[in-house]
Design goal:
heterodimer; A: 302 residues; mainly beta; 13-stranded mixed beta sheet; 4 helices; 21 strands; B: 137 residues; mainly alpha; 5 helices; 53% helix; rod-shaped
């Protein structure tokens, strides 16, 4: 309800020239309210090769259940990973800010039948650069296809439904139960207010020394983590920016970076296209390789 | 002096003192039969040492009690020094090796996933499939 009020306020207060940004919000809002079951193919062309997956989706009541090699339930600030019927990991956060300055304009849309359904195609532009294409189901508002682009016009990720059933799922996604709900904190050290076009929306921390900030430009988003020790990635690749080397790993729809700093570890997890990575990473604490004495001191005393 | 046969065996075993060995040399300098006997004893010892070792039949020493032979002091010192060296290497390696992180990729994914579910774009556009290699049991 709060979101509907916010969208209505935008239509009322913003000048005509920015009304298109409100359209993106409206499209996304309607998509979240849709209930359906679907099969989705995710194909991402990354600097380290293709990452793809086929998953089953069930969305109802703003919650989403994803079933593939692993099962993920998420919604309303909760997330749980289930394997063979057991919750492997879970987390819950309290709602923080969601207001971002619109970074994209959406064209007027055009008819674009998809899966034998009436649908509309909408293109997202950052300035004159095409960044996304959304195919929206006419009847339900569900996002049937989402294509995101690198700055050079190449496709980064394509998420396409190959089956779609608008019947609301009989079984709601499992309620996400986490042992602790993280609340927004004011500790923003090393987590800048903005990173290029991305704005920091909120910051969370837990009792074990992990702090993370959530950034968004209105469509793409990522989290930057601060940890006392560096997080090891499985079989990582690397991105080198000048003298700085970052370990990174791509999964379907997701990139993860991890590096060591003077004060511990940092990591980034998000869905931003590869051409945006450098501009973001350059604005964060630089990678640092401690010497022997520093490593001994850190290992002994933390 | 009668023929010192016992002293000859002890001499060949290296068990005579210098004075006893001098006494034996003095006798052999005047006794040809003792010289011949000494040579025979040496031949026998050499022949015995050249015989191959054989395994004892099982059970022959079944009731024998094992004998603990204490290490000499210098050998104990070397063993102790080696153990201390190994312990030092392990300690240094432990200190220099980065400590395993208390946080995994799962922890990052779960927190990011939880926050993303509050994002206006949450839904099919934000579906992320964790790398199963990162999913811990």
């Amino acid at each position: 309800m709060r979101r509907v009020v916010a969208v209505a306020a935008l239509f009322t207060l913003l000048p005509v020239g920015t009304a298109a940004a409100a359209d993106l919000d409206e499209l996304l809002d309607r998509s979240q309210e849709a209930s359906y079951s679907a099969e989705q193919v995710i194909t991402c062309s990354t600097p380290e090769g293709v990452r793809d997956a086929v998953v089953s989706l069930e969305q109802v009541g703003g919650e989403l259940q994803v079933s593939g090699e692993v099962e993920v339930s998420s919604g309303s600030g909760g997330w749980a990973l289930v394997r063979e019927g057991s919750v492997v990991d879970s987390a819950s956060v309290e709602a923080g800010s969601s207001d971002t300055d619109p970074a994209y304009r959406v064209d007027d849309g055009s008819a674009h039948p998809f899966l034998n359904r009436k649908a509309g195609l909408y293109r997202l532009y950052a300035g004159d650069v095409l960044r996304g294409e959304l195919i929206v189901d006419g009847a339900t508002g569900a996002l049937l296809s989402v294509i995101t682009y690198n700055g050079d016009g190449d496709v980064y990720c394509e998420r396409r439904f190959i089956e779609f059933d608008p019947t609301p799922p009989e079984v709601s996604p499992a309620t996400v139960i986490a042992s602790e709900t993280l609340e927004p904190t004011e500790d923003t050290a090393a987590l800048p207010e903005s990173l290029g076009a991305f704005q920091r929306l909120d910051v969370y921390s837990d009792d074990e020394g992990l702090t993370f900030a959530y950034y968004s430009d209105g469509f793409f988003s990522f989290a930057v983590f601060r940890t006392p020790t560096v997080v090891e990635l499985t079989d990582p690749g690397a991105l080198t920016i000048g003298q700085a080397v970052y370990a990174r790993s791509f999964a379907p729809g997701q990139v993860t970076y991890s590096w060591e700093t003077r004060h511990g570890g940092m990591a980034l997890v998000g869905d931003l296209p590869p051409d945006m990575h450098t501009a973001v990473l350059e604005r964060l604490a630089k990678p640092f390789a401690p010497g022997i004495l520093q490593r001994v001191w850190r290992n002994l005393f933390g | 002096m009668s023929h010192p046969t016992e002293m000859m065996s002890a001499y060949l075993d290296g068990e005579l003192t210098r004075a006893e060995a001098s006494q034996l040399y003095a006798h052999m300098g005047t006794c040809g039969s003792c010289v011949a006997e000494m040579e025979e004893l040496q031949k026998v010892r050499t022949a015995i040492r050249s015989l191959p070792m054989v395994e004892l039949p099982p059970g022959l020493l079944g009731d024998a009690e094992p004998t603990v032979i204490p290490l000499r002091r210098n050998r104990g010192f070397l063993v102790g020094a080696a153990a201390a060296g190994v312990a030092l290497v392990i300690a240094v390696a432990t200190i220099l090796t980065p400590q395993p992180s208390a946080w995994s990729v799962d922890d990052l994914n779960s927190r990011f996933g939880a926050r993303v579910s509050l994002d206006p774009a949450f839904g099919p556009a934000k579906v992320m499939v964790p790398d199963v290699r990162d999913v811990q049991e």
